[in-house]
Design goal:
It is a single chain. This protein has helices spanning 3-13, 15-20, 61-72, 84-92, 126-131, 149-167, 191-202, 221-225, 243-253, 266-269, 276-287; strands spanning 36-40, 79-82, 100-104, 136-143, 171-181, 184-188, 211-216, 232-235, 259-264. Helix 4 (84-92) links the parallel strand 2 (79-82) and strand 3. It has a single domain, classed as TIM Barrel (Alpha-Beta Barrel), CATH 3.20.20. The chain is globular. It has an 8-stranded parallel beta barrel, surrounded by 5 helices. It is an alpha/beta fold and 292 residues long. The two termini are 34 Å apart.
């Protein structure tokens, strides 16, 4: 039986059982080496479907799920980041057994919208993440000093960090210093801008005890990582050069104090050469250096 066709039938025939697949899965502790490799797939919920020159690369859900299952089958991949629809599909397919599940929380800042930086929490909230058996929550924090939507996002983000800590749920904060250029939101990836975003996001909430950061790999990463004591995962971002060059930059950054691993999505799920398995394997070996 085509399990993806069966998945669609199960959504209608047994919605409660479908929903239970995620909290009922076999859970996984953090890896013994304290390092994490998380595959990210929360882009579609913000209307961001493009990869490289293809604006609709992630639009085919069956293809996306197949790529995610291939990635999650690798022993060096520790978990997946997504919205409820993605995580529940994968759990129902049995792909999240023994893996960490990271729930994406604010997807309301739709790509290209006038309200993009008023990034409402339209995905998981803390009670929903706990009920779903998630291991982390993740929030996006784009900071534009010229956009009044930023302060609302900051307020909501601070509340989520506090609520997550009170509930024992680690919150992964992905901050950017952003601005509009010709009406489009652009992230400032200069070292000083990233350091500023780190300082702001580190201070969110009534406690930082369960706050993690998710940061881009930029120039002068030593300075960036010196700006925080919070555990940090590196994000892959969009490739603007050869894949081997990106791997080399990740390799260098992964050796810095405080860096605990990678959270990468489109770069590895849709590599230019189409070799998803090879890209995942290379990244896994960078994170878990003793992996055989």
């Amino acid at each position: 039986m085509n399990d993806l066709a069966d998945l669609r039938d199960r959504r209608v025939a047994d919605p409660d059982g479908f929903r239970r697949a995620l909290p009922d899965r076999r859970r996984s502790p953090l890896p013994a080496d304290g390092r994490l490799f998380i595959v990210a797939a929360d882009h579609p919920a913000r209307g961001a479907l493009g990869v490289g020159a293809d604006p609709m690369a992630m639009a085919d859900r069956d293809e996306l799920l197949d790529r995610l299952r291939l990635a999650l089958a690798h022993p060096g991949v520790d978990g997946v980041l997504g919205t409820a629809d993605i995580l529940e599909d994968l759990a129902a397919l049995g792909a999240v057994e023994g893996k960490l599940a990271v729930g994406s929380m604010n997807r309301g800042g739709l790509r290209g919208a006038a309200f993009e930086l008023d990034d409402r929490f339209t995905g998981y909230d803390v009670p929903g993440a706990i009920a779903a058996g998630l291991d982390f929550g993740k929030l996006l924090l784009r900071i534009d000093l010229d956009d009044p939507g930023t302060v609302r996002t900051l307020e909501h983000a601070g509340r989520v960090v506090t609520d997550g800590a009170d509930a024992g749920l680690p919150i992964m904060v992905e901050p950017f210093a952003s601005r509009r250029v010709d009406g489009r939101v652009v992230n400032d990836l200069t070292p000083d801008a990233v350091i500023g975003s780190v300082a702001i996001s580190s201070g969110l909430g009534a406690t930082s005890a369960r706050t993690w950061l998710k940061l881009p790999v930029v120039d002068e990463m030593e300075r960036v990582m010196a700006a925080t004591t919070l555990p940090t995962l590196l994000l892959g971002g969009d490739l603007d050069g050869p894949q081997d060059a990106a791997f080399a930059r990740w390799d260098t950054a992964l050796r810095l104090p405080g860096v605990r691993g990678l959270t990468v999505g489109r770069t590895l799920l849709y590599p230019a050469d189409g070799e998803v398995g090879a890209a995942i394997d290379t990244a896994a070996r960078l994170v878990h250096r003793g992996l055989r």
